[in-house]
Amino acid sequence: MLYALDQNGDLSVQIAKKLRNAIIEGTLLVDERLPSEKELCDRFSVSRPTVREALKRLAAQNLIRTQRGASGGAFVNRISYNDAYPRHITTSTLLLSMNDITFETACEARFAIEQACIPLAAKRREPDHLAEMRAEIHRQGQEGLSDVGFCDSDVSFHKAMVHAAGNPVLRFQIASAIEAMQPLMNMITFTQRNRAMIIGIHTTIADAIENHDPIVASSGLTELADYTISLGKQMRTIQKTAKET
After folding, report:
1. CATH 1.20.120.530 domain locations along the chain
2. What is the CATH number of domain 81-244?
């Protein structure tokens, strides 16, 4: 079957898109060998360099892998959540930095997604998850911990809470909220926030999750959300005053 391409556009991009769609739709299955370069050349009526460029694009997206030898060729890759996680974070970070996203909007999205994890975390948490959360709470209370160190620990605490939900799809989706949004929020509010208060809220959340109590854990997260938003408003007031003076 011959596939028509727009001769005025980039042919390699079009081929890569068609093959990508076939993978997404399940026409090409995981571990299935793609047609040979010659077959693709005939199918799309293009040169071999064009096909190779299209395959390079797919490989760069981790959608295919190549094998050498008599049984080699290009095969559909199985993408793991761990493989996709960092790319998702990078994309989310770029979206936040390149678009006019308010502090309140970022907070609203981040805490709404985290709230969805609370009931599952309270039900499914394992000792390792609780240990991670407790370790970060202890770290946050250490004397001499830098602002950067506190921010890193803050991110790690919330990641542990999300991981306790035991849902890889939810964990992947919340990557942008924890890994991209929270560092941004920390950077805006770290000079104003009360560490002892945050540690107290974190402790309440961890205790509630350990006791299988999603209501108290959810209430703690709501308190943290309200406090974070109030800090953002304080910072805007301080910045506005500084500009006017």
Report:
1. 81-244
2. 1.20.120.530
Three-state DSSP at 76 gives: strand
Q: Which two tokens stand for residue 201?
A: 């809220």
End-to-end alpha-carbon separation of the chain, Å? 71
Residue pair 66/56 in contact (Cβ under 8 Å)? The answer is no
Is 179 in contact with 92 (CB distance < 8 Å)?
Answer: yes
Give ranges for CATH 1.10.10.10 in the chain: 11-76
Nearest CA among 243, 155, 137 for reference residue 195: 137
- Can you say whether residue 73 is alpha, beta or left, with left for phi > 0 and alpha for psi between -120 and 50 degrees? left
- With 0.90 as the threshold, say if the pTM is over it: no
Total count of residues recorded for the chain:
245
Q: Identify whether the C-beta of residue 42 lies closer than 8 Å to the C-beta of residue 72.
A: no
Task: Give residue-wise pLDDT tens across range 2-48.
Answer: 577 888 889 999 999 999 988 888 888 888 999 999 999 999 999 99
**pLDDT per residue over 191-201, tens digit each?**
677 899 999 99
CA 144 – CA 149 distance, rounded (Å): 10
- State how far the Cα of 51 lies from the Cα of 65, in Å rounded to an integer: 15
Q: Is 65 exposed, middle or buried (0-12, 13-18, 19+ CB in 10 A)?
A: middle
Assigned architecture for domain 11-76:
Orthogonal Bundle (1.10)
